[in-house]
Amino acid sequence: MQTLVIEGYLAVHPSILSAQGSGKKRASFRVLETTRFRRSDGTPGERTTGFNCVCFNATTAECYIEPFAKKGSRVVIQGHVENDTWTGKDGVEHYDLRLIVGDLRLKNRRDRDGEDDQAEPGRVQEPAGGYDLNDDIPF
Questions:
Q1: d(Cα 98, Cα 128) in Å, to the nearest integer?
Q2: Are 100 and 111 in contact (CB under 8 A)?
Q3: Among 1, 10, 92, 103, which lies 20 to 30 A Cα-Cα from 73?
Q4: CATH number at residue 84
Q5: 126 inside domain
Q6: pLDDT digit string, tens, across residues 7-61
Q7: How far apart are CA 96 and CA 14, in angstroms?
Q8: How many angstroms separate the CA atoms of 133 and 130, rounded?
């Protein structure tokens, strides 16, 4: 089996789906990865590729992806590629590739809307023990 690692951004909010028979949850989402390059004449170019991803781990889908992943979240995904086939309403058979997620890391920036208790820039927040790490060391 070949392993694929991609880093990109979620194109839409992940959808959490339940299997019909077992009721197990899975997450389905699309990740966009942009590659920048230089053409032979020296002009810059970029190419964006979309990956359909599915995470079958119910715990990861419910406890990690559903509450924290949202449209625009930066992610690093490790997984393997599978063929996906289905027959449309018109009777035509369709083929696609999808990434089966083995490991997912969210790389969200922290919100600055007051949720983050940050002190002023350049200052270390005082630990609970009452020590100020910005004081000079006496030795």
A1: 47
A2: no
A3: 1
A4: 2.40.50.140
A5: no
A6: 999 999 999 988 888 888 899 999 999 999 999 999 999 999 999 999 999 888 8
A7: 19
A8: 10
Burial of 89 (0-12, 13-18, 19+ CB in 10 A): exposed
Residue 129 domain-assigned (yes or no)? no
Answering whether pTM is above 0.85, one says no
> What are the pLDDT digits (tens) for 81-112?
999 888 999 999 999 889 999 999 998 765 54
Angle at 28 between CA 26 and CA 32, to 5 degrees: 150
CA distance 77 to 30: 11
Helix (H) / strand (E) element for 67: namely helix 66-68
Tally of residues, the chain? 139
Identify each DSSP E strand in the chain by its residue range: 4-10, 15-18, 25-38, 44-55, 74-87, 93-106
Does residue 75 form part of some domain?
yes
Classify burial at 90, counting beta carbons within 10 Å of its beta carbon; exposed 0-12, middle 13-18, buried 19 or more. Answer: exposed
* Helix, strand or coil, per DSSP, at residue 94: strand
